[in-house]
From TrEMBL:
The keyword Membrane applies. Keywords: Membrane, Transmembrane, Transmembrane helix. It comes from Brassica oleracea var. oleracea. The keyword DNA-binding does not apply. The chain crosses the membrane at residues 73-93, 100-127, 175-198, 218-237. InterPro entries: UNC-50 (IPR007881). This is UNC-50 family protein.
Length: 252
């Protein structure tokens, strides 16, 4: 009887996933159903007190019976802000309107959506396959990390990095793309802090889940970033120049 019970729980869990996705995508086009004020509160606290945001994740699980957000406002607003920031770069550095459209679409898809989906999928597979605690007995309800939650974690981690590497970087870019050691050093430090903070928030997102263990694994990329940064500085690699040349080479 126990295997039958386990299968029924698994099937009921998967059946709940589809309505959750359908409801989520329906709400994307209905602004009146989005909690904009709470979304901006989350964005502010992700930059200043990220642990507070993930404490609210526990309350969401208790009230909604899911770890993932049921409100797409965060993704929608984050996407709009990224598009606006990219348009600001295009207005300053681009040479044509048609190329600006290509740049906006490219940045949105590659920097945020596709990369985020790939990272979320890898983390979803990793957490569910290797980092879940074994249930002490067969009567305990099995918990799994929802894919939508892993994408939420990516979005949470992306926003402070966006503020640093898209907004702050925009105002510093005229200096960062010049020749010299100081622009080279500052550019690498900016990218090092942004990437490190992204992975730190990634760690917080999974560390809050009580059924996961060894979540410090998500902190390991920070060590790689810190080791690579001085190597890139000594080799003369300027990440600001690299990415600006990738999109606006004819204007630099």
């Amino acid at each position: 009887m126990l295997p039958t019970t386990s299968r029924s729980r698994s099937s009921s869990s998967s059946s709940r996933a589809n309505p959750m996705f359908l409801q989520y995508f329906r709400r994307i086009v209905k602004w009146q159903q989005m909690d904009i004020e709470y979304t901006f509160w989350q964005m502010l606290n992700l930059c200043t007190s990220p642990k507070v945001v993930y404490q609210h994740t526990k309350y969401h699980k208790q009230t909604k019976n899911q770890w993932a957000r049921d409100d797409p406002a965060f993704i929608v607003i984050c996407s709009l802000l990224l598009i606006l920031a990219t348009l600001a770069y295009c207005a300053t550095y681009d040479h044509s309107g048609s190329h600006a459209v290509v740049v906006v679409i490219s940045v949105f898809l590659t920097h945020f959506l596709i990369t985020g989906a790939l990272i979320a999928t890898c983390c979803w597979f990793l957490t569910n396959s290797y980092l879940r605690e074994e249930a002490p007995n067969s009567h305990v309800v099995e918990q799994r990390v929802e894919w939508l939650y892993t994408f939420d974690v990516h979005c949470n981690s992306f926003f402070p990095m966006f503020v640093l590497l898209y907004v702050v970087h925009y105002f510093l870019s005229p200096f960062l793309i010049t020749h010299g050691f100081i622009p080279l050093l500052l550019s690498n430090l900016l990218f090092m802090v942004g990437a490190s903070y992204y992975h730190y928030l990634n760690f917080l997102g999974y560390d809050v889940l009580p059924f996961l263990e060894r979540t410090t694994f998500f902190l390991y990329p920070i060590g790689i970033v810190i080791v690579l940064s001085p190597i890139l500085i000594l080799s003369g690699f300027n990440p600001s120049k690299y990415f600006m040349n990738m999109y606006f080479s004819q204007r630099l």
